[in-house]
Structure formats: structure tokens, C-alpha cells
Specification:
alpha/beta; five-stranded parallel beta sheet; 14 helices; P-loop_NTPase; Cytidylate kinase-like family protein
């Protein structure tokens, strides 16, 4: 255990140093990923590597550093930073129970797989892959691994949160539109907080903050699509891009409920009842969000270019399947 902690601590120091060097090379408008003092940040990164190796948090932080490193224009600096980035990913992969280490594959289903899907983008189009996924299907692991394999940027909710904070899109105290009138009445009655309420109401043109965030991130996705190749997880990006006539590939990743429950039990040390309850709750939340902003049914095959049962392939072969579909590496 102590040896593993020492290993994670060394990796954490390398991650912090890479973040520092990338920022110095880029001077990114997003700023440093880790903004605290070195000792505190390294300890926090170490904790995440040890206690939350499956979590999105450290994965998103590392992906954000990689995204910024890919924008470095100096070829020598770019090569040096990306080499360090790839070495860090390899070291993380070697950590017991690192993210992506618990697969979703069902060997019986995998034996039946004979798919060979291919699809090309025009050379003039940016490669944009929108991935929706059910919780526990390893969809996030697949998206992250695919972005690294294709050497393109990766964006998920955590990364968008950081970007939108820079755009002054606040996520605190999100309220549904239906609650606004009652909230206003309550605050007027108490004669407290009214100024802040009206400030937010005016700032977002009368929209609930959650709606404002959605529209801000939708605009951001469309702007990014004009400039770079990337993978985006969720965010209704498939429908957003379709509505703006921006070429993309939409993918939905799932697995059987039982398979996902077993994976959640293993990942988070939950019993069956806890894992099943969590999945039902998260699935309902995702379905509602998708329907509210698109009017479409989340996970319905007709809404996607490709639907993958990740239990039939596992993480690595799911990545290879998507590669074949987009024909990114036709000779591989």
C-alpha cells in the first residue's frame, strides 16, 4: 500500500509539473489546471489517484492538460509536452485499479461480434465525435481512450464547467423556471437577497441559470467545431450540432442493466441494491435532461449513427470499432 502511494505521489508531481510547463508554453486563457501551491496540489492529486482512480475528476484534469498541450505551436515544445503526457498516462494505466482497468466486456457476447462499420468524414470537416452513454457502461473510459488514440481533444462535463466558469456562467443555486416566481415571493417576503436574484434574472435574460448554462455551452461547442477535432461526452452535443448543420458522428454506448450493475458494484464497492438504485436514478436524470433540451428520447437508436453494447466488445475493442467506423486508420 505504501509503495503504491509513493508511486502515485511521484506521478502526481509529474502531473503538476506538466501542467505548469504546458501553461508556460501556451499561456492558455483557461489558466492553470492546478492553481494552488505545489505541495497542496500534489497531495490532492495523489489522493485522487489512490482513492478515486475510477472517478472523472482526475481524468478530466489530465485531459484538460492534454488539450492545452496539443495547442502548443512550437514543434519542439509540443513534442516534449505530449511525450511527457503520454508517459504519465502509461504510468497511470499501470496503477492497480486505475481508470479504465475495470472492463465491461461480456465474453459470450464478444464471441458473437462480427461487425465491420466504416464511415468517412470529408477532408475539409473537423472530426467531431459526440458520445452519449449510460452510467456504468464504461462509455466515459471509451471516450477518453479514443481521444488519446486519435490524439484529439476530449471534453466532458467537468471540463465544460471549468470553461464556463471563465465565461461567468454560474452553476450555484440552479433553479427550474417553474420555481422562479415562488423563489421571488419568498425573497421579497424576507426582504433579503432580492438584489442578487434580479441581477441573475437580468444577467440570463430571465432564463433559469441551468438553461443559460446549456445555451452557453451549446454556443461553445459550435465555436469549437469550427476550429478543432474533438470528442465531447454528453451535453446534447449531437442534437446541438445537427441543428447547426455541423457534420459529426453521434454514438451511444450502453450495456445491459445487470452488466452495468455488476460493474458499479465492483467500481464503487456497492451492494446490488445500492448499485441498481443509483443506476435507475442516473438514467432517469440523463433521460430527462436530454428530452428537456432536445425533445428526443435519450438512448433511442434512431437518434445516433452508432449504438454500441460495450459488454460485447469491452473498452479496447469498442475504441477499435469506432476507429474502423470513421476510417481514421484504414490500414490498421
Amino acid at each position: 500500500m505504501e509503495k503504491n502511494r509513493e508511486n502515485c505521489y511521484e506521478i502526481a508531481k509529474q502531473i503538476y509539473q506538466l501542467d505548469k510547463e504546458v501553461y508556460e508554453c501556451v499561456g492558455s486563457s483557461l489558466g492553470r489546471t492546478f492553481t494552488g501551491d505545489e505541495a497542496t496540489c500534489v497531495e490532492e492529486i495523489t489522493r485522487l489517484l489512490i482513492t478515486r482512480p475510477q472517478g472523472h475528476e482526475i481524468r478530466s484534469d489530465i485531459a484538460l492538460i492534454g488539450n492545452m498541450a496539443r495547442t502548443i505551436k512550437n514543434k519542439e515544445d509540443h513534442h516534449r509536452m505530449m511525450t511527457q503526457y503520454n508517459e504519465i498516462l502509461k504510468k497511470i494505466a499501470a496503477i492497480p485499479d486505475s481508470f479504465g482497468s475495470v472492463d465491461i466486456i461480456n465474453e459470450n457476447l464478444a464471441a458473437l461480434n462480427t461487425s465491420n462499420l466504416r464511415q468517412k468524414f470529408s477532408p475539409d470537416d473537423h472530426l467531431i465525435i459526440c458520445i452519449g452513454r449510460t452510467h456504468g457502461s464504461a462509455g466515459t473510459d471509451i471516450g477518453f481512450a479514443l481521444a488519446d488514440k486519435l490524439k484529439i481533444n476530449y471534453y466532458d462535463a467537468e471540463i465544460f464547467d471549468q470553461v464556463l466558469k471563465k465565461m461567468d456562467a454560474e452553476k450555484e443555486d440552479i433553479e427550474d423556471h417553474s420555481n422562479y416566481v415562488e423563489e421571488l415571493k419568498g425573497k421579497i417576503a424576507k426582504k433579503t437577497g432580492v438584489g442578487k436574484f434580479f441581477k441573475n434574472f437580468k444577467k440570463y435574460h430571465g432564463l433559469p441559470v441551468q438553461d443559460a448554462i446549456f445555451f452557453n455551452q451549446s454556443d461553445l461547442i459550435c465555436e469549437m467545431a469550427k476550429k478543432e477535432d474533438f470528442i465531447v461526452m454528453g451535453r446534447c452535443a449531437d442534437v446541438v450540432l445537427t441543428n447547426h448543420r455541423i457534420p459529426h458522428i453521434s454514438i451511444f454506448i450502453t450495456a445491459s442493466f445487470e452488466q452495468r450493475v455488476r460493474r458499479m458494484m465492483e467500481l464503487h464497492n456497492l451492494n446490488y441494491k445500492q448499485a441498481a438504485h443509483l443506476l435507475v436514478k442516473l438514467d432517469a436524470k440523463h433521460a430527462k435532461y436530454y428530452f428537456d433540451y432536445t425533445g428526443k428520447k435519450w438512448g433511442d437508436a434512431v437518434n445516433y449513427d452508432l449504438c454500441i453494447n460495450s459488454a460485447s466488445y469491452g473498452i479496447e475493442e469498442s475504441v477499435e470499432l469506432i476507429e474502423r467506423m470513421i476510417n481514421k486508420y484504414p490500414n490498421s
